[in-house]
Amino acid sequence: ILFYVSIGFKNGAATIPILEGGHGEPIENIAAASYFNPVPHVLMLTAIVVGVATVGVALAVIQRLYAEYGTLEENEILDKIANS
Fold first, then answer.
1. How far apart are CA 10 and CA 26, in angstroms?
2. Of the candidates 7, 63, 59, the residue with the CA atom closest to the CA atom of residue 36
3. What residues have CB less than 8 Å from 74, skipping those under 6 apart?
4. pTM for the whole thing?
5. CA distance 1 to 5
6. What is the rounded end-to-end Cα distance, in angstroms, of the chain?
7. What does the pLDDT profile of the chain (84 residues) look like in tens digits?
8. Which of 19, 38, 56, 82 has a 20 to 30 Å separation from 46 between CA atoms?
């Protein structure tokens, strides 16, 4: 994660890309080279959120398996399924 976040970093007087101005007004003289690239930060935040959601679903499935079969051992669960 640190590698991807560091991709968007720039030394010097870089800033975040927030443009001022009203709707419909043309923006002139945008120095795009002085802005941080927000895409790597957004991608890593998305990866963290997806990872946490995946762990949550996996824990819910494990909890349901344990409640249904009383164990988390694969062989015991398969035996209980075969015997029922």
1. 27
2. 7
3. none
4. 0.62
5. 6
6. 47
7. 777 667 666 666 666 666 666 666 666 666 666 677 778 878 889 999 999 999 999 999 999 999 999 999 999 999 999 998
8. 19
Token pair, residue 35, equals 């802005």
Q: What is the rounded distance in angstroms from the CA atom of residue 72 to the CA atom of residue 7?
A: 42
Question: Tokens for 31?
Answer: 């120095």
CA–CA separation, 80 and 37 (whole Å):
54
Enumerate residues 6+ apart whose C-beta is below 8 A from 35: 10, 14, 15, 16, 17
The structural domains of the chain, with segments of one domain joined by +, span 2-83
